[in-house]
Amino acid sequence: MLEPSRADGQQMADYFFSQTNIHQLLHTFDMLPHTLIWIKDRASRIMFANRCFLHQYGVSGLADLIGKCDTDFSPRAIARQFIEDDCKVLAGKQVEERLELNILRTGEICWFLTSKHPLLADSGDIIGTYGLSRRLEKSSISLAAVRQLELSIDYIRSHFCEEIEIAALARVSCLSVSALERRFKKYLHKSPKQFVNEIRLEHARRLLADGSEPIADIAMASGFADPSYFTRLFSRYFGCPPTHYRRLQEEP
């Protein structure tokens, strides 16, 4: 192939990139700090992820991640939201700078700004998705939405093992109950009660993985007065009952 004339910039770029190793280019994303970058196929399986993504989910190398889905390394409810997003993007939609709250593998709760786009083949067919997520506190962007929810979220994180009434949570946030619920629905796509239960369930999951306490004691320590209700909710959220989840963690 002859090198095109310098006058045709696009052809020059096309010629240059036709000689480039795409895998080498992808690993330039490892240079971006505090930014998770990934590429998935149409089945929502990871095809590529940068170093920040691997660190976020405690994966030692890309080979351990390729071919896996979000359900393999994220809480079930969060993974379900990611996969629903993928379906929308595969239908041609885009997600731009959406504010999200996510629970890290350490249990830490962090704000992210997320964008996702369809991945196109040369034919124009959508063959997958790609996206990036930036930790908000590592970004220069300041959003009022975060400040509006910080008081209530901090209160939930400090008192999740106690009974939390929505009216009391609204008072802490200096909002009416209806205003608090609207903000949760708008920015987190869930109700305050759902968010409280997710924090409790994540705490219970860590206790199950790290200890041998009875299920009833773990339920109580996580804010659930009724062990049966805890078991039903845990099964719905993680896809298996607490006893089965514990056995899975004990397997070599």
Task: Describe the model.
The mean pLDDT is 84. The protein starts with 8 loop residues before the first helix and ends with a helix. The chain is built from eleven helices and five strands; from the N terminus they run ααββααβββααααααα. A hairpin with a 5-residue loop joins β3 and β4. The chain has helices spanning 9-18, 22-26, 51-56, 76-90, 144-159, 166-172, 177-188, 192-210, 215-221, 227-238, 242-250; strands spanning 35-41, 46-49, 95-103, 109-120, 126-135. It folds into two domains: 32-138, Beta-Lactamase (2-Layer Sandwich); 144-250, Arc Repressor Mutant, subunit A (Orthogonal Bundle), CATH 1.10.10.60. 47% of the residues lie in helices and 17% in strands.
Quick overview of this protein structure:
With 252 residues, this protein is an alpha+beta fold. The chain has 11 helices and 5 strands.
Descriptive keywords:
252 residues, alpha+beta, Beta-Lactamase, Arc Repressor Mutant, subunit A, five-stranded antiparallel beta sheet, 5 strands, 17% strand
CATH class of the largest domain: Alpha Beta
In the CATH classification, which architecture of the largest domain applies? 2-Layer Sandwich
CATH superfamily label of the largest domain:
PAS domain
Distance between the termini: 54 Å
Beta-strand level of the residues, as a percent range? Answer: 15-25%
In N-to-C order, the SSE pattern is HHEEHHEEEHHHHHHH
Q: Profile the largest sheet.
A: 5 strands, antiparallel
Kindly state the mean pLDDT as a whole number? 84
Number of strands: 5
- State the share of residues found in helices, binned by percent: 40-55%
Low-confidence stretches: none
**What's the number of structural domains?**
2
Widest sheet, order of strands: 2-1-5-4-3
Task: Please identify the structural class as seen in this structure.
Answer: alpha+beta
Rg calc? 22 Å
Give the overall shape.
Answer: globular
Helical element count?
11
Q: What name is given to the CATH topology of the largest domain?
A: Beta-Lactamase
